[in-house]
């Protein structure tokens, strides 16, 4: 596997190829990222991953500075997973000047849920993803890019961006990988202390229970069920931002009978200083 730090080197290495399979990441890789690399592998003629902690998607009070940076270990894992090329740009390479041109995704999708609790987050994500796409796919007839479903809303935002800008890129959404107790794998799990790590599995349990309750009530009062689910987590010491039942297609609250459309239960909550997110399709 080649490791490159500049856009010019990246493009030089990609020039013999026609369909890159790309897995963008912020590093501190776990089995979820590795599963994405393995899934993406057969879908292109070269497999590329990027590691870049993108300041633009962090609010000033968030964990940009402390985000775990583990480049050497990540590179070893990527190579073992069959990745051919790792793009690990320095900040000045991707942002040589203040990024004054930004992608502002449609507010209907990006101001709710994560976008509501992390204002500007999807502007930062969309901007860096478009930039990474332009680094990887410029001049390519087509490509595929893989994102994890743990960041469910991010997948929808990226899919819509790709569609609306007519980018010749297929988006692959990989299933969330979980620890044995059900906790969704995330780079931020590294922040949890041992007691928090045990408690952390309760978020997945709460989401499953909410999904179960929504499905089994005949005419569920979703707002009441969601409030109960949040209160139950809060009683255990969590600070929930949301636990909610939404339509998979646009993340709006379901309009008709629940059985009539594919749904997803999404949640975000803080445990100690660590904010975790998770979801289940039902
Ligand atoms: O999901 C992530 O790790 C990041 O949001 C991404 C897509 C790499 C953009 O920085």
Radius of gyration, CA atoms, in whole angstroms: 19 Å
- Find the CATH topology of the largest domain: Rossmann fold
Strand pairing plus helix content: what structural class?
A: alpha/beta
The H-level CATH homologous superfamily of the largest domain, spelled out, is HUPs
Which CATH class of the largest domain?
Alpha Beta
> How can the largest sheet be summarized?
6 strands, parallel
**Which molecules other than protein and nucleic acid are bound?**
pantoate
Strand order of the largest sheet: 1-4-3-2-5-6
Record the SSE blueprint.
Layout: E1 2-4, H1 7-14, E2 20-25, H2 31-40, E3 46-51, H3 71-80, E4 85-87, H4 91-94, H5 107-110, H6 114-117, H7 121-137, E5 143-148, H8 152-164, E6 169-174, H9 194-199, H10 201-216, H11 222-235, E7 239-247, E8 263-271, E9 274-281
Parallel strand pairs: 1-4, 2-3, 2-5, 3-4, 5-6
Antiparallel strand pairs: 7-8, 8-9
Helix pairs in contact: 7-8, 10-11
The structure holds pantoate (PAF).
Overview of this structure, please?
With 282 residues, the chain is α/β, with parallel strands linked by helices. It folds into 2 domains: 2-174, Rossmann fold; 187-281, Pantoate--beta-alanine Ligase, Chain: A,domain 2 (2-Layer Sandwich), CATH 3.30.1300. Helix content is 38%, strand content 20%. It is built from 11 helices and 9 strands. The strands form 2 sheets. The protein has a 6-stranded parallel β-sheet, with helices on both faces. The protein is globular. The site of pantoate has 10 residues, from strand 2 and helix 7.
């Amino acid at each position: 596997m080649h490791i490159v730090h500049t856009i010019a080197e990246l493009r030089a290495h990609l020039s013999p190829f026609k369909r890159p399979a790309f897995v963008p990441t912020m590093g501190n890789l776990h089995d979820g990222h590795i599963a994405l690399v393995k899934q993406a592998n057969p879908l292109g003629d070269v497999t590329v991953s990027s590691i870049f902690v993108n300041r633009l998607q962090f609010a000033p009070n968030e964990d940009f500075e402390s985000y775990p940076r583990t480049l050497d270990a990540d590179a070893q894992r990527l190579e073992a997973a069959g990745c051919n090329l790792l793009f690990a740009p320095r900040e000045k390479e991707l942002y040589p000047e203040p990024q004054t041109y930004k992608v502002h995704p449609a507010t209907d999708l990006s101001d709710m849920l994560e976008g509501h609790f992390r204002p500007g987050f999807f502007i930062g994500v969309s901007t860096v993803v478009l930039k990474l796409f332009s680094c990887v796919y410029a001049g390519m007839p087509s490509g595929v890019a893989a994102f994890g479903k743990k960041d469910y809303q991010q997948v929808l935002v990226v899919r819509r961006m790709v569609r609306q800008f007519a980018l010749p890129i297929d988006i692959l959404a990989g299933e969330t990988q979980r620890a044995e107790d059900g906790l969704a794998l995330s780079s931020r799990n590294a922040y949890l202390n041992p007691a928090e790590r045990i408690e952390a599995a309760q978020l997945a349990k709460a989401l499953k229970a909410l999904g179960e309750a929504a499905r089994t009530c005949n005419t569920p009062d979703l707002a009441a069920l969601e409030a109960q689910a949040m209160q139950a987590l809060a009683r255990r010491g969590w600070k929930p931002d949301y636990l909610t039942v939404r339509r998979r297609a646009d993340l709006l609250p379901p309009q008709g009978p629940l059985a009539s459309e594919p749904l997803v239960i999404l949640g975000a909550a803080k445990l100690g200083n660590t904010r975790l997110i998770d979801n289940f399709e039902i």
